[in-house]
Amino acid sequence: MTRHELATRNLTLRYGRATIIDELALSLPAGQVTAIVGPNGCGKSTLLAGLARLHAPSQGAVLLDGNDIQQLPARELARRLALLPQEAIAPEGLTVAELVRFGRQPHQGWLRQWSSEDQQVVHRALAAADVDELADRSLDTLSGGQRQRAWIAMTIAQQTPLLLLDEPTSALDLGHQIEVFELVRRLATDGRTVVMVLHDLASACRYADHLLALRNGQLVAAGPPGDVVTTDLVRRLYDIDCTLIPDPATGSLLLANVRRVGR
Amino acid sequence: MTRVLRVMHSSIPAESGTRQPDANPLRSRREDRSRRVIAPAGHWRLAWQASNGSGGYSLLIDRRSFVAALLLTIALMAASLAYLAMGSSSLALGAVLPALVGRGDLMAVFLIQELRLPRLAAACLTGAAFGVAGCLMQTLARNRLATPGIIGIDNGATAFAVASVVGLGVSLAPPAMALVGATTAAALTFGLAAGGGTRGYRFIVAGIGVGAVFGAITQLLLAKVSIDIANAAYPWTVGTLNARPAGAVTLLAIGLAFGLIAALWLTRALSLMRFSDAVAAGLGLHVARRRWQVLSVSVLLTGLAVAVAGPVGLIGLIGPEIARSLSSSRGVPIMASALAGALVMVLADLAGRVLLSPIEIPVGIVTAVVGGPWLLWILLRPASRNLA
After folding, report:
1. Could you tell me if residue A141 is inside a domain?
2. Which of the residue ranges A153-162, B263-272, B370-379 would you say has the lowest mean pLDDT?
3. Residue A1 falls within a domain, yes or no?
4. What is the mean pLDDT of residues A4-8?
5. Which of A57, A4, A19 is nearest to A214 (CA)?
6. Which residue, of A39, A56, B253, B276, has the fewest CB within 10 Å?
7. d(C-alpha A223, C-alpha A213), whole Å
8. How far apart are CA B193 and CA B197, in angstroms?
9. pLDDT band for position A224 (50/70/90)?
């Protein structure tokens, strides 16, 4: 899979007069998993929406391979960049296979509604997300974790080199979270660039190659989690003190002895 | 350019092993068995290959929706036949078809060709237009209550048309006025729902408010003029096929042809609009542009249909509802909504003409009597699906 570079140049995103993202310049490493973390209201979901062109910049630009994404046709963008928003709503009664077939939409046309390529890609996407057993089940009947994997299967079927996920695990229990994170890791191993907004710093340390820490719409830290996550960063982001210890099995950082600042 | 046409039956689960033998021996030899394309469950796949090797073409036809459209077509034809035969003076079914082509009893020919056929055409066109407009608006708002009749577009069109009737003595151009009214009401509804978009109850509540205001304006206009002029404008307020402004039907026919083609062309976009906006955009839909197109077609069809029949907006609720219950839930049933809308309109007008004959009940009243309880049923039904 060809690698694509996603970057921002002086990106400013506003809601009305409120500036959510302020002149942000960053680039996302290709073929890696990037996690965007930060406190509530820091603008991480807005940044993701901006990267996916759901939110037009007030200033600056989002660049895909050096080109402003605002200039790309919608379908062209959807062939390069897939998005799973936080509140993904599907028509009622849709089955998993039908949902995943929608992922082929950007590749299809009026006279090209179902090709052998479509069939193979959907088949592989169902298998990759481990939902092939559930293909004929209605989405409404699935557990949260299964449903999330079905949605990710849809984005896989889009065959985009870039995948943006907005809090893909926020409503899931621990077991289902791990299912989704391991799927994300497999996708990155296949060469995809994955960007996800995450609430949980420890999960970000465990599953991301690259971390972007935001506070008040500005970048506080960027780099591999092991390099950038310090007790000082945690204090700046969340106003808490903690002790950072490496996970005995994986070496990724864990937050221990978490308490409010000054206690 | 020679093409090989291939129809493949599917829905057969891949593992059931009942694959159809390939019609083309050349292809089956050339193609690896595992690469054989199987239509997704519940579809027919039509595929053909351009001989110059520029790649394959394929169409998917949803079987259930196809059958639904076929059934509705047959039902519409049967209802039309009954419509032509029944009335204050009934004709034998056997006399209807000859009279259509100008044979047989002169009286029957006159009755069919001059009286009933034009009215049947008007019923079919208005019903289809209301049906498609309703289906489009429901999909746009992702809410089955959001039909042009309920969000005030009908009332806007009516108020403007009545204004033209009472203001100028004769109807200058009710179709044009109705179109302007429909557009005004839609614009107001959008303006008032600003920020909320077309999704959610804010849009619907704003529409109901706009509709109420235009309804009141219509009443006010009627109260201010003499009883004769009010009588002339009365058909506009209830919805009837009895008083069709000249030219309005032709205009509707042209508008419907355009609107139906546009709506069918938008089908793929409409099926994406049933997802939340972010998902639809992520799948390559230009959400804002498509929304404007869908809204424009819906308002156009509503305005032109109101210009012919007045506010019979409940057709826009009932038609798509029938279409959806018959069609598969995978797509947006544009064609079936048109057919079901036409069917309901034809049946309602037939009932209005026949039930209390020789007194004629305006079709708007018939649909209200049927549609009111229907609306309540939708609201009260326990497993009410939001849309589609």
Report:
1. no
2. B370-379
3. no
4. 86
5. A19
6. A56
7. 9
8. 6
9. very high
CA separation for the pair A252, A229 (Å, rounded): 10
Instruction: Give the distance, in angstroms, between the CA of residue B154 and the centroid of all CA atoms in the same chain.
Output: 14
A interface mutation test: which of B279, B286, B327 has the most A CBs within 10 A? B279
End-to-end CA distance of chain A: 50
Query: What tokens were used for B305?
Result: 């249909």
> Is A105 an 8 Å CB contact of chain B?
yes
Separation between Cα atoms, residue B65 and residue B49, nearest integer Å: 26
Residues B307-320: what's their mean pLDDT? 89
Q: Which residues of A touch B36 (CB under 8 A)?
A: 116
Number of domains forming the structure of chain A: 1
CA distances in angstroms from A141 to A92, A136, A191, listed in the order given: 11, 11, 32
- Give the per-residue pLDDT at B168: 55
DSSP structure class, residue A20 = E
Provide the pLDDT for residue A87: 80
Domains and CATH numbers, chain B: 3-54 (no CATH), 64-149+240-380 (1.10.3470.10)
- Say if A16 is an interface residue toward chain B (CB within 8 Å): no
Q: What is the pTM of this model?
A: 0.87
**CA of B216, closest CA in chain A: separation in Å?**
36
What is the CA A167 to chain-centroid distance, rounded?
7
Question: Are B301 and B256 within 8 A, CB to CB?
Answer: yes
Does A113 map to a domain?
A: no
Which chain B residue has its CA at the smallest distance from A87's CA?
A: B276
Provide the CATH number for the domain around residue A187: 3.40.50.300
**Considering the domain boundaries, does residue A225 fall inside one?**
yes
Chain A residues in contact with B275 by the CB 8 A cut-off are 88-91, 102
Residues of chain B found within 8 Å of residue A87, distances taken between Cβ atoms: 276, 278
Does residue A29 contact residue A209 with C-beta atoms inside 8 Å? yes
Contact of A184 with A207, CB cutoff 8 Å: yes
Contact (Cβ atoms closer than 8 angstroms) between residue B345 and residue B129? no
Q: Which residues does B301 contact at the CB level (< 8 Å), separation at least 6? A: B129, B130, B132, B133, B136, B255, B256, B259
- Express each pLDDT in B237-276 by its tens digit: 888 888 777 788 999 999 999 999 999 999 999 999 999 8
Angle ∠(A64,A69,A74) on CA atoms, nearest 5 = 120
DSSP assignment of B73-103 equals: HHHHHHHHHHHHH-SSS---HHHHHHHHTT-
8 Å CB contact of A52 and B281: yes
Does A72 touch chain B if contact means CB atoms closer than 8 Å? Answer: no
Interface residue B356 vs chain A (CB under 8 A): no
| Residue A224 domain boundaries | 6-88+161-260
**Residue B321 in this model has a pLDDT that exceeds 50:** yes
Continuous H helices in chain A: 44-51, 74-80, 96-102, 116-128, 144-157, 174-189, 201-207, 225-228, 231-238
Alpha-carbon span A99 to B298, nearest angstrom:
27
Which among A79, A92, A105, A158 is the top mutation candidate for probing chain B, defined by the most B β-carbons within 10 Å of its own β-carbon? A105
Cβ atoms of B19 and B36 within 8 Å: the answer is yes
